[in-house]
Amino acid sequence: MLGFLKEPVVVTAKINVNLVALTVMGLISRLWGLCYPRAVVFDEVYYGQFVSLYMKRIFFVDDSGPPFGHMLLALGGYLGGFDGNFLWNRIGAEYSMNVPVWSLRLLPALAGALCVPLAYQILVELHFSHCAALGAALLILLENSLITQSRFMLLESILIFFILLAVLSYLKFYNLQKHSAFSGSWWFWLLLTGVACSCAVGVKYMGLFTYMLLLAIAGLHFWHMIGDQNLSNVSLLCHFLARALALIIIPMGLYLSFFYVHLALLYRSGPHDQIMTSAFQASLEGGLARITQGQPLEVAYGSQITLRNVLGKPMQCWLHSHTNTYPIRYENGRGSSHQQQVTCYPFKDVNNWWIVKDPGMQQLVVSNPPRPVRHGHIVQLVHGITTRYLNTHDVAAPLSPHSQEVSCYIDYNISMPAQNLWRVEIVNRESDTDVWKTILSEVRFVHVNTSAVLKASGVTGASLPEWGYRQLEVVGEKLSKGYHQSMVWNVEEHRYGKSQEQKEREVELHSPTQMDISKNLSFMAKFTELQWKILTLKNEDTEHKYSSSALDWITMDTNIAYWLHPTSGAQIHLLGNVATWASANAAALVYLCLSLWYLLRRRRKIYDIPEDAWQLWISAGGICGGGWAVNYLPFFLMEKTLFLYHYLPAVTFQILLIPVVLQHLGDHLCRSVLLKSMFSALIVAWFSSVYFVYCSFSPVTYGRPALSLTELKALRWKDTWNILIRKQ
């Protein structure tokens, strides 16, 4: 029974020395001197703010993309014991001792280092030689731009890592398809493909480009499987369901989980609250939640409320009135009703309070029990401080003459009767008997007499002149087909009115309410709102000193100065390896020309290369050339400020194309021994030039040693490069 103990336990393992060596070199190139410079480098000033907010659990919205990449950077800060206390306000600012610089930069550096062995494995899985794979890895290793971008608290190296991991995983899965379908390793690589794609998208939406490419390739491969008569219908269905699960359903679930963790971590109110709805703000600790916590949930006749416009951009504002009236005549000569002004005011104020009144009763207090207002009910809105009724009539609005003026009615004893009845329409109702709810209900107010809809037109247009205190215009919109968010309002602050006398009511309006009713949003409601804000909220793009166009990237006519030492000439620039970038462009051109040539010849039934070599050529082009195209061409359609680092995912794929083309030329065009020897010598000379360029630009890649004035001028190989030279 114990016979197995008579023999020693032996474990054997195959170690790819190339892979180990490349990994070690990648780690050295990215981790060496990682704490230098101990100062804020370029976009660290941007991402560092979010890391600090994570450390303090304060909610924020970043319109540049999903939260997964930010969370990874924050993880580095957490592991280093960062408390979030640092003022991220200036590039070049020295880090204080509480900032764990090495820890914050570690994950991007590790991701950048692991891209080197990933490049090697991708070429191997594409069935190219180990020599070609080694060349691809060394090109990634010696690429100055990738080194620079991975050594700081930035997201591009993490994005490229997940992109390459997704490509490698899919290739391994595909290569297992014929002989090991539905095996453990088959499932592992298929699932890892979906996970890596989701992570890439979760870091930056640029990851979508590679994800769509892999989905298209997977679809094409499955289409070929359908034509395989050896596969039964049941087998095909299982293959389809496995791919749908791993490449669509799991990535979607993982993407949702990024937001779930993000929202779970950031539970405190912060500076970005105001762009979110009242319901979202009230779900955060502090801020609006301190004001609205415990308010009555159901709006009743006699309720005292503030009404916030749902649009919330370019600024949030509340329905407001004050004692001032519209001028008798506007600057353009048009007349007004001279009624009390109604505006949308961007600040909290006692004049934002309104009382919901039953038109059939005189009382302005909530009855016992309260009578809730439902969808379709007719109400009057009484301004809390001035006790005048919200009104609109057939008089042109001050800034929007096509719309009706909205006012609080003053009885001048002239032939202009009050028109102050409004129908409550709950836009997000579940049924026609829904009760109007605080914060949760989004409502339109439709004027009974004219069918005009109460609209904050000022949030999308100009503000009122000096007579309106530069507040935002409110109108009755006659064209009410469908609805715009500027026509939708929600109750933000709410109390049940108890005082019938005006003086007592004014005191009541100035005091907060404290009644316990929870208004927590579900995760899906918060996710939907946050996702929509990320996609639609765009900061005003301004021209940046180092911004560039997509055309500038191919020839590297631009650079970005990341950091400059305050006293010496030491500096860091985002600059690619000129030899590698030029070679990548040449490889792409050669691949395109050769592919067109082969296609024309094959059309004439002339086959210059064997069929397996042709399939290898096409599959490598689909991955490397397709990866370059999908990560580059979309930028020509984008209306945003672009920088050189946006090109890094595309150029990574283009670099992988270089050894593909070189091996193809050596195998199929250099047919004599002499030609092969000459070609090998040229490759050695070319690779030496790549290494020379890497060494030449290492001082501005790593930031040291500091270069003299003459040395800096010598590095300015192009007139368009902005190498920083101090005036003596």
Automatic annotation (TrEMBL):
<feature type="transmembrane region" description="Helical">
    <location>
        <begin position="154"/>
        <end position="174"/>
    </location>
</feature>
<keyword id="KW-0808">Transferase</keyword>
<dbReference type="GO" id="GO:0005789">
    <property type="term" value="C:endoplasmic reticulum membrane"/>
</dbReference>
<feature type="transmembrane region" description="Helical">
    <location>
        <begin position="126"/>
        <end position="142"/>
    </location>
</feature>
<feature type="transmembrane region" description="Helical">
    <location>
        <begin position="240"/>
        <end position="267"/>
    </location>
</feature>
<dbReference type="Pfam" id="PF02815">
    <property type="entry name" value="MIR"/>
</dbReference>
<feature type="transmembrane region" description="Helical">
    <location>
        <begin position="642"/>
        <end position="662"/>
    </location>
</feature>
<feature type="transmembrane region" description="Helical">
    <location>
        <begin position="100"/>
        <end position="120"/>
    </location>
</feature>
<feature type="transmembrane region" description="Helical">
    <location>
        <begin position="68"/>
        <end position="88"/>
    </location>
</feature>
<dbReference type="Pfam" id="PF16192">
    <property type="entry name" value="PMT_4TMC"/>
</dbReference>
<dbReference type="Pfam" id="PF02366">
    <property type="entry name" value="PMT"/>
</dbReference>
<feature type="transmembrane region" description="Helical">
    <location>
        <begin position="578"/>
        <end position="600"/>
    </location>
</feature>
<dbReference type="InterPro" id="IPR032421">
    <property type="entry name" value="PMT_4TMC"/>
</dbReference>
<keyword id="KW-1133">Transmembrane helix</keyword>
<dbReference type="InterPro" id="IPR027005">
    <property type="entry name" value="PMT-like"/>
</dbReference>
<protein>
    <recommendedName>
        <fullName>Protein O-mannosyl-transferase 1</fullName>
        <ecNumber>2.4.1.109</ecNumber>
    </recommendedName>
</protein>
<keyword id="KW-0256">Endoplasmic reticulum</keyword>
<feature type="transmembrane region" description="Helical">
    <location>
        <begin position="186"/>
        <end position="219"/>
    </location>
</feature>
<dbReference type="InterPro" id="IPR003342">
    <property type="entry name" value="ArnT-like_N"/>
</dbReference>
<keyword id="KW-0812">Transmembrane</keyword>
<feature type="transmembrane region" description="Helical">
    <location>
        <begin position="674"/>
        <end position="694"/>
    </location>
</feature>
<keyword id="KW-0472">Membrane</keyword>
<keyword id="KW-0677">Repeat</keyword>
<comment type="pathway">
    <text>Protein modification; protein glycosylation.</text>
</comment>
<feature type="transmembrane region" description="Helical">
    <location>
        <begin position="612"/>
        <end position="630"/>
    </location>
</feature>
<feature type="domain" description="MIR">
    <location>
        <begin position="296"/>
        <end position="359"/>
    </location>
</feature>
<keyword id="KW-0328">Glycosyltransferase</keyword>
<dbReference type="InterPro" id="IPR036300">
    <property type="entry name" value="MIR_dom_sf"/>
</dbReference>
<comment type="similarity">
    <text>Belongs to the glycosyltransferase 39 family.</text>
</comment>
<feature type="domain" description="MIR">
    <location>
        <begin position="370"/>
        <end position="427"/>
    </location>
</feature>
<dbReference type="GO" id="GO:0004169">
    <property type="term" value="F:dolichyl-phosphate-mannose-protein mannosyltransferase activity"/>
</dbReference>
<dbReference type="InterPro" id="IPR016093">
    <property type="entry name" value="MIR_motif"/>
</dbReference>
